[in-house]
């Protein structure tokens, strides 16, 4: 019944693919009936509150470009030949990744990685070795992932993926070298500092009456959004906010009558959705904001995002 409800959403196929992949993962591990529910339940909870599934994008942890580049360089320098992908994440946000030059990791695969880590507390206690299917990368098999947190007091989790099921100890040594280098360059502290700030506040953008927004870069398939604050601190208000984004997305991407821009006036807020070849933007304003004011504010917002883009997005990932 839950899956039937999910299918009615505009992003059903991404979610359905991930659910199928989760079931295949447990079948491969010969423990289909043990523990599967917590991963699917967690996934469905994320679908309700995370714009990432709606947008087909991932959110990056805001970091100074120099810090992110340093982390990427360390992953590159410490790579062992058995390593296919290195993915560093924290609290459902991508910090950086290392990939083969001829292959990319799509948001759908990263959603699966995020859900795997978010749903399991066991990864915090010890290094783990687990099969993982990334269907957009290869839907005919699975990789083997070394999963561990950088340090006990750091929420960042490192996944080192290999095609070889016997390379746990090689990747464990690789992880130790990566952590040592990151500590030496102050990268772990920088990650902790960014997480402690809980992203950025809407006030930092400096646009009156702008309450919240979600911006997707189509070129990178990444999105950014400020921390949710008043008037959306209560659960029902956050649910309404997510519902507004779903409404805008559905109307703009309608198969019957797709739109490039939509301005909607509600009883509690006004919302504007704007889609171009380069980006998607959904912005929420106070209830008295007019369309000309909203468009003017959105243009200011776009300029702010452009100034901050090397902190908000991964503009070029490390490849080998």
Global Rg: 20 Å
Instruction: State the total count of DSSP E strands.
Output: 12
**Proportion of beta-strand residues:** 15-25%
Low-confidence stretches: 1-10, 26-34
Mean pLDDT value? 89
Any chance you could write out the topology, listing elements then pairs?
Layout: H1 2-7, H2 12-28, H3 36-49, H4 51-55, E1 58-59, H5 65-77, E2 83-90, E3 93-99, H6 107-119, E4 128-132, E5 143-151, E6 154-162, H7 168-184, H8 187-196, E7 210-217, E8 222-224, H9 235-252, E9 261-265, E10 270-275, E11 279-285, H10 291-312, E12 318-319
Parallel strand pairs: 1-8, 3-12
Antiparallel strand pairs: 2-3, 2-6, 4-5, 5-6, 7-8, 7-11, 9-10, 10-11
Task: Walk me through the structure.
- The protein is an alpha+beta fold and 320 residues long.
- Helices cover 42% and strands 22% of the residues.
- It has a six-stranded mixed β-sheet, with helices on both faces. A six-stranded mixed β-sheet has the order 4-5-6-2-3-12, with helices on both faces.
- Strand 10 and strand 11 (279-285) form a beta hairpin.
- The longest helix has 22 residues, at 291-312.
- The chain starts with a helix and ends with a strand.
